[in-house]
Amino acid sequence: MTSTKPSAPVEATPAESAPAAALHVGTSDPRTLITRNLRQSGIYIAFVVIVALFAFLTDGVLLSPGNITNIVLQYSYILVLAIGMVILIIAGHIDLSVGSIVALTGGVSAVLVIQHGQPWWIGVVAAVAVGTAVGAWHGFWVAYVGMPAFIVTLAGMLLFRGLTLQVLDNVSLSPFPAEYQKVASGFLNGLIGGQGYDAFTLLVAALAVAGYAVSVFRTRLARIRYEQPVESFPLFVARVLVVAAVVMYFGWQLAHARGLPIVLIVLAVLVIVYGLMTKNTVLGRQVYAIGGNLSAAMLSGVKVRKVNFWIFVNMGFLAGVAGVIYSSRSNGAQPAAGNMFELDAIAAAFIGGAAVAGGVGTVVGAMVGGLIMAVMSNGMQLMGIDQSTQSVVKGLVLLLAVAFDIYNKRRAGAAR
Predict the structure, then answer these.
(1) In which residue ranges is the amino acid composition biased (Low complexity) (predicted)?
(2) Are 127 and 337 in contact (CB under 8 A)?
């Protein structure tokens, strides 16, 4: 009688097994994942709770089509600044001068377009160029001279506010031509019709949902392939459906108002580009490395000075973009424009999960942090709450966000 050995099981390759694992099992307990990613998960939960609270307190006015459009238009420049600010904070820096740069770039644009009659696009190009040059100025002192960013940008806040007063000769300039105003106040609608709504806006929202779903599914497969923990598939599907519902509701409300704001397209492009840059490029990984452990980054061959220089140049570029948006929105340039914008941008980054010591933070998190500030400000305005109380509430929210970051670090250190 012959005996046969049982055949050894054939192991599936990671590429073959990943889809099956993604569809049927999770690789970690959901509670463990939520605890591990409390910073990232908590900010989205907080955003939903704050939106629901102010929607209730304002009898639904907060979520009306017209008001949602107003939130996008009124706070878009803060969100643009928050993109650059969170990158600086990840690298362990900060910029206190962005409000002054917004005022200066808007003033330069106004002088060229309003006083000297140049085409509107000349003003846009000049504003962005001036902002980029200011960023290079800051980057030189921080990266190559070795001065702390806090001191350099504090000096810049005073310097460029003074230059704004000189450029505008202490007077306000207005109005901009209609083409310039459309940068922040224009809409794309009626391109593909719709009965009582703008179908193009809904199409863009649906494409955004599809893109998000594909992106997160690919990320999930990659994490499984490298044996990293992911949530169970039902929880993953639920998360995607919640995001899809929020985006489609947002698109539906915009479609029933004035259509898709042009500034929202600009902001979406910036978020996508910088989100990919921070996650999928060498420069992005180097920024995190510098903020996480400067000595290790230098020993690993990261050109710290070069990276620091370019992230300040980038901050200046985005401040120039924000200057164009703000001057377009306000239809003019004022010497006092941009006052306290730097604090709003910093608050958005920290509330969105950036760490005080650097090395932690995301562009999407900064956007959510900025939207939390925007919803709170808009909701309190709708409720008729005075400006002083609004400042108190914003300050407390920022304080709690930083305290939460410190608490998480201490708990992580104790766990080790």
Answers:
(1) 1-22
(2) no
Strand ranges in 52-145 using DSSP code E only, listed in sequence order: none
pLDDT of 12 over the 50 cut: no
Write down the pLDDT at residue 2: 44
CA 39 to CA 352: how far, in whole Å?
8
- Residues 87 and 339: their CA atoms lie apart, in Å, by 22
Phi, psi of 391 (to 5 degrees): -65, -40
How confident is the model at residue 24, as a pLDDT?
A: 43
- Cα dihedral sign, 224-226-227-228: negative
Which pTM does this prediction carry? 0.85
What is the C-alpha separation between 81 and 342, in angstroms, rounded?
A: 8
Residue 195 has pLDDT above 70, yes or no: no
CA 44 from chain center: how many Å?
Answer: 14
Cβ atoms within 10 Å, residue 340: 9
Question: In this structure, what token pair is assigned to residue 308?
Answer: 């620091």
Beta partners for 260?
188
